[in-house]
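Batch manifest, entry 17 of 40.
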Amino acid sequence: MLNAKITGMASYLPDYILDNDELSRMVDTNDEWITTRVGIKERRMLKMDVGSSYMGIQAVNKLLEETGTGKDEVDAMICVTSNPVYRFPSTASVIIHECGLEKNCYGYDIQAACAGFIVAAHIANGYIRAGLHKKVIVVCTEKMSSMVNYADRATC
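Output type: structure tokens
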């Protein structure tokens, strides 16, 4: 029986950091209140006028480079996102195209919130163990700032 394994990991973090002190100047809150309730000290935010696919593209390109994986070696991509750039095409399709993986790779999006990586990893594992694919990329990308109202204390 075939076994699946994680052969590489890469990430992309936007440069801009919104910390609790800055957030407390935007709404009525403070670092202590946020930290004791949710443990968050800072958030990385993509300030550019691009969607979640941008971060996925950066991470996948970094992954391919760091692992020495050829663009024709990737069989499938599962993209986990709750805020896709478009309804159609899928964010995975955008990432595949921008990373030059179209030759052998297909992809699709799933929405599974916080469990998204685990769900996608299980799916990828199943594809590999069944012999359907050899290399599957799981990419998780969220641009939550596009959905948050930073003037509303209850949601930000």
